[in-house]
Design brief:
The structure holds three protein chains of three kinds. Chain A is of the alpha+beta class. Chain A is built from four helices and three strands, in the order H-H-E-E-E-H-H. In chain A, strands 1-2-3 form a three-stranded antiparallel beta sheet. In chain A, helix 1 (about 5-20) runs antiparallel to helix 3 (about 90-105), helix 2 crosses helix 3 and helix 2 (about 25-30) crosses helix 4 (about 110-140). By secondary structure, chain C is an alpha/beta fold. Chain C has a single domain (about 10-190), classed as Rossmann fold (3-Layer(aba) Sandwich). Chain C contains four helices and nine strands, in the order αβαβαββββαβββ. In chain C, helix 1 (about 10-25) packs across helix 2. Classes of the chains: A alpha+beta, B alpha+beta, C alpha/beta.
């Protein structure tokens, strides 16, 4: 699985992004409805650490260090395939589930079922939550009315 | 000079027990949960994350509970905790232009792409105490939703930059300096100054920003834009070799627009002061942007006369963890120090008394 | 490329033990310590050298090594150290074969001597009581250390490195699960 062409990487980045935003319980509940994942070996047990978050001066200038955030990572192996997870926060269960799914999703024989059964529903929920917030924000958008000039 | 003294153990453990009891307060009142602090004191959580320089809502809420609401103590707890964690690396710089906006306003343009989005703001509240909040279980209003969502919109400064009226930032390419790894050295570059201000004490940075408006380091700022919302954080794990999104964090960004008279090489144009902070921290981001611009005085060829323009003064005193440590260390035993001062004073006074007696006798 | 093997079984305790071994080795130059027992790094990495890097190298310490692709993947994954663009900028240099010239490594500055590089060299064997005579801080009279597998001219190069003090390069010699250290303040006299 090391000879990934750019397209599979884009797809993998998408599912990793969705799993990074999902809660462990949500992932587990969706997995429960599917045939169980094959057992995995922990290559690196879930571990919490920090990532230094960077910004840019003026939004588009030179990079600077804004501050750190907690991140939990995990790496597992299913057969010969290594799955990785780096997820914001300190939830070790989420990181391990995400790593196991990352390994399983790289297996073409499992991918479609896992995409349909886990990634797509999580993505839809996340999209709906983002959309609801963006519509709340839109409700607070100011509609300016020109005042009539009076003397 | 310090001398180690023993003997306080029993007193300290009794003090800790009482501290625990006072944290809990009246046991007849239900105990505050960390989730309640996180959900219902979100701006306190944001401040502690910013000054603790560590984005983790739960940890910040826990620190607030433990610190009995003392936010500087809470930031201290968070800073201490972060030192126990390994650092995996640094993220790609946040793309604030792609922010999922909760709030976005500009004081420079009424009609701008994307419009003025107020978001959950105190700005138009009447600052009258709301006694309805004192009653428990009252139904609160639910926020309405518009039919169409707010889209991601370009930064206001970009609109001015396209016309050549706004100084472009130098994107640079070097690794930014990191105050958590390298001690502060002067003159400090803008990257280090911004990191320092982003985690600086809100009160201190606010007062300095205010001082620039009142004429100490006179610049005349406009709020080009304030945006509050969520941005994705991208990180490239070395073992993967390609960037992945590891989640989203809430940030507040402020662009202050300031006049610049130009120089031999540059025509008159606007320049930016920049603020970026964890969470919803509008006051902090605005103050940071004012002070950032003031600290750019030297590089823009302006006179450095005011406290807010003085790098050493600002950057050495902005950190409230350092400040509280040095101020509060005065509580530690200085018995021997003080004995020597006392001895000194007594000797001088005794000499003065002898002197005056001799004069009286003459 | 072979499959990635695990790193420390217990990342916290095993890293602390390896750190302790390096600390002991640096405090008592020439005394042989053990590190990396149970660690199975990919060839040509040896357990002690691998343990030193897992304990000390991280995302803030640029690394240069000559261990090849498997070792690279293993170190990248378990230590997370970035590849240094140049030898002179590396915080750690690992030599599984012939080590680079000491003079090619970063030696820090008079103001920040701690920026000098640490060279980890895998050698054929290490034994106390014979060979070099080591003199310097941490040694009451002299410690003797026999090292097999360093290139000729190492002692001369070390003498030049010693003369830079407080700047200079520190060396950790590793053989299998054994290690010994040469902090930059040590003088080596040959047998």
């Amino acid at each position: 699985m090391t000879d990934m062409t750019p397209d599979p990487i884009a797809e993998r980045r998408r599912w990793m992004a969705v799993l990074a935003r999902a809660e462990a319980d949500e992932i587990a509940a969706l997995l429960a409805a599917l045939p169980p994942l094959p057992p995995h070996e922990r290559l690196r047990a879930p571990e919490t650490g920090l990532v230094m978050v960077r910004g840019r001066a003026g939004g588009d200038g030179g990079a600077f260090n804004l501050g750190e955030m907690t991140v939990t990572r995990c790496a597992v192996r299913i057969g010969g395939v290594v799955g990785h997870a780096y997820v914001a926060g300190r939830d070790k269960r989420q990181a391990e589930l995400a790593a196991a799914l990352d390994a399983a999703l790289q297996d073409p024989a499992r991918r479609a079922a896992l995409m349909d059964g886990v990634i797509a529903p999580l993505d839809a929920r996340q999209q709906a939550a983002r959309d609801a917030e963006a519509r709340r924000a839109a409700a607070t958008k100011v509609e300016f009315l020109a005042m009539q000039t009076t003397r | 000079m310090y001398v180690a003294v023993k003997g306080g153990e029993r007193a300290i453990s009794a003090a800790h027990a009482w501290l625990d009891e006072t944290r809990r307060g009246d046991p007849a009142v239900p105990e505050l949960t960390v989730a309640q602090v996180e959900q219902q004191m979100p701006l306190a959580v944001d401040r502690v994350m910013a000054e603790g320089s560590c984005h983790d809502r739960f940890l910040a809420a826990l620190a607030i509970k433990q610190a009995k609401g003392d936010l500087i103590e809470a930031a201290f707890l968070l800073r201490a905790y972060r030192t126990t964690l390994p650092r995996f690396g640094a993220s790609a710089p946040l793309e604030t232009g792609a922010m999922r906006l909760r709030r976005r306003i500009s004081a420079t343009y009424k009609d701008l792409p994307g419009g003025q989005v107020l978001g959950p703001t105190f700005d138009y509240t009447h600052r009258l105490l709301d006694f309805a909040l004192a009653a428990e279980g009252t139904e609160r209003a639910t926020a309405p939703e518009a039919d169409a969502p707010v889209p991601a919109v370009p930064r206001v400064t970009e609109l001015l930059a396209r016309e050549g009226l706004m100084q472009r930032e130098d994107p640079g390419d070097g690794e930014p300096g990191d105050l958590t790894r390298e001690p502060l050295a002067f003159p400090a570059a803008r990257d280090v100054r911004l990191q320092n201000l982003a985690r600086g004490d809100e009160g201190f940075v606010l007062a300095l920003g205010y001082s620039t408006q009142r004429g100490y380091g006179g610049n005349h700022p406009f709020v080009g834009e304030i945006r509050v919302g969520h941005v994705a954080v991208e990180f490239t794990p070395p073992e993967l070799g390609f960037p992945i999104e590891i989640g989203e964090i809430a940030v507040t960004e402020c662009q202050m627009v300031n006049q610049f008279k130009g120089s031999r090489t540059e025509p008159p144009q606007f320049t930016r002061g920049y603020g970026l902070v964890f969470g919803h921290g509008e006051r902090r981001a605005m103050a940071m942007a004012l002070v950032d611009r003031a600290l750019r005085s030297a590089e823009l060829g302006e006179d450095v006369t005011a406290p807010a323009q003085d790098q050493e003064f600002v950057l050495y005193h902005s950190d409230n963890i350092e400040a509280t440590g040095f101020v509060e260390h005065l509580k530690l035993p200085h018995y021997v120090d003080f004995q020597s001062e006392l001895e000194n004073l007594r000797t001088i006074r005794a000499a003065l008394v002898r002197e005056s007696l001799r004069e009286a006798a003459e | 490329m072979t499959a990635l093997t695990p790193g420390f079984a217990d990342p916290v305790l095993d890293a602390q033990a390896a750190f302790r071994a390096v600390l002991e080795a640096m405090s008592r130059p020439g005394r042989v310590q053990r590190a990396g027992a149970g660690l199975a790094p990919p060839a040509p990495l040896m357990p002690a050298a691998a343990a030193v890097l897992l304990a000390l190298a991280d995302s803030g310490t640029p690394l240069v090594h000559d261990g090849g692709e498997d070792a690279d993947a293993w170190l990248r994954f378990h230590a997370g150290a970035p590849v240094s663009p140049t030898l002179a900028e590396a915080a750690f240099v690992l030599a599984t074969g012939a080590p680079p010239a000491l003079s090619a490594l970063g030696t820090g500055t008079e103001e920040e001597p701690e920026r000098g590089a640490t060279l980890v060299v895998q050698v054929a064997s290490l034994a106390e009581g014979d060979g070099w005579r080591l003199i310097g801080p941490g040694i009451e009279r002299e410690h003797r250390l026999a090292v097999e597998g360093l290139p000729p001219g190492f002692v001369q190069a070390w003498t030049a490195n010693r003369a830079l003090f407080p700047r200079g390069v520190d060396v950790v010699l590793c053989a299998g699960e054994h290690l010994a250290a040469l902090p930059r303040g040590i003088t080596i006299a040959e047998g």
